[in-house]
Amino acid sequence: MGLPPGKALRAVLGETLVELADKDPRLVVVDGDVASSSGVESFETVHPERFLQMGIAEQNMLGVAAGLSTLGLIPVVSSFACFSVGRAFDSIRVLIAQPGLNVKITGGYSGLLTGMTGQTHQIFNDVAIMRTLAKVTVLAPADEVEARQAVRAMVATDGPFYMQVTREASPVLFGDDYRFEIGKAVRVREGPDVTLVSTGVQTTRVFEAAELLADGGVEATVLHVPTIKPLDVEAIVEAARASGFVVVVEEQSVLGGLGGAVAEALSDRYPVTIKRLGIQDTYGESGPNELLLEKYRLSAGALAEDVRSLLSRRRS
After folding, report:
1. Residue range 130-142, pLDDT digits in tens
2. Which of 124, 141, 131 is nearest to 8 (CA)?
3. Looking at the whole model, is its pTM more than 0.90?
4. I need a labelling partner for 294 at 20 to 30 A (CA). Which of 31, 193, 249, 250 fits?
5. In 47-143, which residue ranges form alpha helices assigned H by DSSP?
6. Helix or strand holding residue 9 (H, E)
7. Does residue 175 lie within any of the structural domains?
8. What pLDDT is stored for residue 1 in this prediction?
9. From edge to edge, which strands make up the β-sheet containing 245-253?
10. What range does the domain containing 272 cover?
């Protein structure tokens, strides 16, 4: 039995921003002509006077957001990750990150499952890029429960943020009693045989993979890392101690993202064997979600198979 179905994080983003704007007149949304796709169309409907449509001009959009923040407003930037990070990186670096301005950047359509948009609209290194920028906090919530809390925490906390927002509906991992905290990772499963570390919506598939592994007698610890920067190094070290063997799984490139961050942390604090599963050194493509997850070995079933194989090779 898998996890229960839930909402798309883009829908949660729009709903939560509307709720926050009802109470805080400083909140504005700056959009790059993707409101109907990124989830903020609901904000435009309810608060049209605080919705700024910038068109397909992402570098300018980030510059406008920077300027708005200097006036005491809280701008939330709405665009696809490939545009808000890929096209506008220099604007982020110079105009937002270096002065540490209070701008909240969302990366819609993050990851592999982007509605069959293909290579041009898929970006697998946005986390790797954004975590290299000083002063920028990087978030990747797992489900609608965590996403709602993460948006609230991001808006309430001063400074530049980047948050991944996925397109597709995703399962619910957390209950109503869950409390998100910036900079804190959370164990969602305990097991002595292997430590699985993941982030974003991919954690739901990793959790389901751990359940499949348990059916075969392998008990895994699953550590969810919703804040990739600043990284919860203590939680990662503690989880690594649980098994002495860490497998990092992410719906991102294996180069420079969460896997790189975990490897950096453990090499300093608790050197253990680390394997990284995710998008290899390649680009994506169009296709149905299920087929893409299978091809790139990110489905629960594929992950369970690959972790079993890694454990077998390790034991031999």
Report:
1. 999 999 999 999 9
2. 141
3. yes
4. 193
5. 58-70, 81, 89-91, 126-130
6. helix 9-23
7. no
8. 59
9. 186-189, 220-224, 194-198, 245-253, 273-279
10. 186-315
